[in-house]
């Protein structure tokens, strides 16, 4: 086995480890709200617009678009600060 094969083998092991870690993390997270599906497309619970694919790549369980989730986070933070 040459140095390139060793490097490729290590890279594959690292990739598999990272994938296992990510899958374990995702399996622990349970969405608290059910996704809104319209015509087979996951849509935002608030504005009912399709959730961008890039957002779903980063957050598989996303149920809101970035804009609506940001508004919700700000509102929840403000409400939490008043208590």
Report on this model:
With 83 residues, this protein is mainly α. The protein has two domains: 1-30; 32-83, no CATH class. Helices cover 59% and strands 7% of the residues. The chain is built from three helices and two strands, in the order αββαα. The chain has helices at 3-28, 53-58, 66-82, and strands spanning 36-38, 41-43. A two-stranded antiparallel ribbon has the order 1-2. The radius of gyration is 19 Å and the shape is elongated. The model has no long low-confidence stretch (mean pLDDT 86).
SSE arrangement:
Blueprint: H1 3-28, E1 36-38, E2 41-43, H2 53-58, H3 66-82
Antiparallel strand pairs: 1-2
Number of helices: 3
Biggest sheet statistics: 2 strands, antiparallel
Mean pLDDT: 86
Oligomer: single chain
Number of E-type strands: 2
The class by helix and strand makeup works out as mainly alpha
Helix content estimate: 55-70%
The percentage of residues in β strands lies in: 5-15%
Order of neighbouring strands in the sheet with most strands: 1-2
Shape: elongated
CA-CA gap between termini: 63 Å
Number of domains: 2
The sequence of SSEs as H and E is HEEHH
User: What Rg do the Cα atoms give?
Assistant: 19 Å
The low-confidence parts are: none
């Amino acid at each position: 086995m040459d140095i390139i094969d060793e490097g490729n083998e290590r890279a594959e092991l690292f990739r598999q480890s990272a994938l296992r870690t990510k899958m374990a993390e995702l399996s622990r997270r349970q969405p608290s709200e059910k996704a809104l599906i319209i015509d087979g497309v996951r849509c935002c619970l608030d504005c009912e617009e399709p959730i961008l694919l890039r957002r779903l790549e980063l957050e598989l369980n996303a149920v809101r678009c970035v804009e609506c989730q940001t508004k919700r986070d700000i509102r929840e933070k403000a409400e939490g600060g008043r208590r």
